[in-house]
Amino acid sequence: MLDHPIARIEQLRVQFQTKHGLVTGVEDVSFDINPGETVCVVGESGSGKSVSSLALMRLIEFGGGEIANGRLIFDRRDGEDVDLAKADQDLMRTIRGNEIGMIFQEPMTALNPVFTVGRQLTEGLRVHHGLSRKAAEAEALDLLKQVRIPEPERRLVQYPHELSGGMRQRVVIAMALACKPRLLIADEPTTALDVTIQAEILALMDRLKRETGTAVMFITHDMAVVAQMADRVVVMFRGNKVEEGPVEQIFEAPQHAYTQALLAAVPKLGEMRGKSLPEPMKLFGRTDQKIEPIPGQDKVLLTVDNLTTRFPVRGGLFRRHIANVHAVEDVSFKLNRGQTLSLVGESGCGKSSAGRSLLRLVEPTSGHVDLDGTNITGLGPNSLRDARRDMQMIFQDPFASLNPQMQLAEQVAEPIRNYGTAKGSEIMDRVGGLFDRVELPRSFMRRFPHELSGGQRQRIAIARALALNPKLIVADEAVSALDVSVQAQVINLMMELQAELGLSYVFISHDMAVVERVSHNVGVMYLGRIVELGPRAAVFEDPQHPYTKALMKAVPIADPRRRKSEKDLNFKPIPSPIHPVDYEPAPSEYDEVTPGHFVLTTDSGY
């Protein structure tokens, strides 16, 4: 390591002018980033970690913020130190993209939808390095190969909407690396990605950092990612740095109470080893918490047989039906009362379509769903409406599923009014009880969704799902967008409600550590089929299908001494789920390897 840091942040203070006066986003933060070093800045939403990075890029002014105090010393390529806090925007334009690269959290907002991938990749090279079009295109092709994008020649002429989320994020990384920056700022670059793609992108960034000596400022709230990537960790809380140190020290001997709480809230893969039943997480600082396993019952509530859902693909002049997307293919399972079955897999594996098909929010093509003796697939519109009382859904994004113009009390009361399960003043008493149950103060009943944090909104979505006393709740990625400590609270809340009310959950997720914590049984999905199904301990501790094994290997573990290397990851590209209209796949057949643990023997394409 060289003694001279590439970037020094000294006593940074950032303020925002709002209609309620000045708000401080970052109060007084100082840290250095050395060449070839990854510094992870961690903390929850609102801790000021993204604000620090936007200040360093001087993009904060475009979001209504200003640097009120501090110095941002950057060591430029030519060896001269410059204070970015005082630099004019002309100088910043030459530094941005050229000497400091940035990877944003949401690739679709970082890419321009009207230009091809090739044009966006070559733009920086031509502006900053003066390359000819031909030389820039050759360089762009090389960059796509470096970030391991399949068929890179084809991708150059495609538009962003034609690529999957993981591919778009790789393009954004390639753009950030195009001019070989001295400092790379990565703001939550893997939050929205599947575990397999996340693992590949983290390994890729680590390799590129070692090969080029770039310094990396990595912003995240995922402690498993920190353990995988960091050399040094800076912990932020409410605009201040509360702790800094080498990654092993932070994980093994955290000093500050906030760091201890943050690490305690992280579900770690392998924590449930030796336990056959799920149990809530031990929350930091809660002495009154009773941790009891959740056995559930032996009675079957939900039986799913040969569920198949296909979506038509139309094309040609007359929009004829030319092919089908095989979203869910011959899926069967049983779920007991008071238990949780988790469906896991990558984006596009069909887990959300399966969840929606159970409730007939998407009409299945064939198959049979039986909920507590009622044949859901055979019901007409009126009977289906009655049956929906017993089955509810919690969506991934609570903001999209709540009405921005209605007070929260009205939103929770809406299903009760619709079904007439309570009358008059009884309704608001019941709503108040639901607010108590999801641990929200009753004063929130008059508020609107935008006045709540993400975790609080998700609690409202849970309260609304509980309003009709359902027997089954389908939770589709219900905690994936939440900070770790909030996620731990919401998971515990769902498990406590399960124990108390005897709820059954179909829990859809790509977060393997959360799934291990909450599940009685697990179904691993790949290309619309369940490739492995069984008790959680069997699937996690003795995976049999090659896809399940690859998935388990990719999960980052919140322990810096157990890092993954690129050779641990051997993913095959996922084949297309689109087939001609007359294509009939073979039915799903399984081997029972141990009691209740089934492995697909039909060729799943993996």
UniProtKB/TrEMBL annotation:
Q: Which organism is it from?
A: Allosediminivita pacifica
- For this protein, what is the EC number? 7.4.2.10
Q: What's the chief localization of this chain?
A: membrane
Q: Does the keyword Cell inner membrane apply?
A: yes
UniProt record similarity statement: Belongs to the ABC transporter superfamily. Glutathione importer (TC 3.A.1.5.11) family.
Record-given protein name: Glutathione import ATP-binding protein GsiA
Q: Give the record's GO CC terms.
A: plasma membrane
Q: Does the keyword Translocase apply?
A: yes
InterPro entries from the UniProt entry: AAA+_ATPase, ABC_transp_ATP-bind, ABC_transporter-like_ATP-bd, ABC_transporter-like_CS, Oligopep_ABC_C, P-loop_NTPase
